[in-house]
Amino acid sequence: MLATANFVDDVRGLKTPYLIVVGDKDPGLDSTAMQHTFLARHPNAELHVIPNCGHYPMQECPPYFATVIEGFLKRKAV
Questions:
Q1: Which intervals of the chain form a coiled coil (predicted)?
Q2: Which one of 6, 26, 41, 54 has the fewest beta carbons within 10 angstroms of its own beta carbon?
């Protein structure tokens, strides 16, 4: 089901701030992939690359990941 789901039109143009977090060692969803997909469609998105981390930064680098999320939320809080 999710393999064929397409949410692009549902979220296009939303003013919601997005944080995209990837690990620099992720073999598939790296910063280049995100720049050509999600970031290309969402002007309010920002990308953060976690060094020495793979596909699961929340499990592989939890303190660093939490710091990144906390900083994003603090900057975007109204």
A1: none
A2: 6
Name 48's Cβ contacts closer than 8 Å, sequence gap at least 6.
Answer: 19, 20, 21, 22, 68, 72
> What does the DSSP 8-state code read for residue 46?
E
The helix (run of H) or strand (run of E) holding residue 23 is strand 18-23
What is the token pair recorded at 51?
A: 């060094």
Which residues lie across from 22 on neighbouring strands?
Answer: 49
Instruction: Please tell me whether residue 22 adopts helix, strand or coil conformation.
Output: strand
Contact 21, 68 (CB under 8 A): yes
